Amino acid sequence: MKNPIQLIIAVLILTAALSACSMKSEEDAIADALAITEDTFKSETAAEANFEHYGESFYLPDKLEVESKDKSNLVLTDGDQTYIIFYNKNEGALSELNFNAVQNSNALLLESFNDGEKFGYVSVLPDEGEGYQLQIGIGGAKITTYTDKGKMDDDAKELMKIAKSIAAEATEES
Predict the structure, then answer these.
(1) CATH value at residue 39
(2) Neighbours of 58 (CB within 10 A)
(3) What average pLDDT does range 105-109 have in this prediction?
(4) Count of beta carbons in the 10 Å neighbourhood of residue 159
(5) Is residue 9 within a helix (H) or strand (E), and if so which, with residue range?
(6) Residue 135: inside a domain, yes or no?
(7) 10: pLDDT confidence band, cut at 50, 70 and 90?
(8) Which CA distances in Å does 60 have to 7, 53, 56, 65, 115?
(9) How far apart are alpha carbons 74 and 66 in whole angstroms?
(10) Cα(137)–Cα(110) distance, rounded to whole angstroms?
(11) Residue 119's domain spans which residues?
């Protein structure tokens, strides 16, 4: 009888050790988020607009539900996670207003991108708990959510896709 119990304990210890080794460090999570954000910003492929908001058409992932909205803001949810989109139509795709607003923060990451047609950025701030505030913007659009190390890169990619689609709409109107 001791052998099966010892085997179960050994398997549990091994599983716990492997799980701990596979967890991302904060540095790796932030580096991955930066890389995917920049790749998505520079990508020639744009997400197709699938959402209409006060005459603006842009992309929203299907998993997001609209909780509230007004002309400049959308509050979206995916389960317990909230996403806030703020859009200032008076700021063009090259605007640095939102980026400049986060300059004096205690960001773990604050990086900008400019391709001559649009100006974008990513900011990662520590949350009060073990999570992170992720903010991504292009021009007058900024999207903010709270995330964790395991989801940061996926969230960064989706937020940049949304921001790019809003910026594309703003560029078409100019």
Answers:
(1) 3.40.1000
(2) 25
(3) 88
(4) 27
(5) helix 2-22
(6) yes
(7) low
(8) 48, 11, 12, 9, 23
(9) 7
(10) 11
(11) 24-173
Maximum alpha-carbon separation in the chain: 76
Question: Whole-model pTM?
Answer: 0.84
The residue among 145, 128, 136, 154 whose CA lies nearest residue 67 is 145
Dig out the tokens for 99 from the structure.
């980026």
Q: Which DSSP helix (H) or strand (E) runs through 32?
A: helix 26-42
**Phi first, then psi: what are they for 53, rounded to 5°?**
-140, 105
| Nearest Cα to Cα of residue 102 among 131, 76, 136, 71 | 136
The region that residue 54 occupies, defined by phi over 0 for left and psi between -120 and 50 for alpha, beta otherwise, is: left
The answer to whether 137 and 85 have CB atoms below 8 angstroms apart is: no
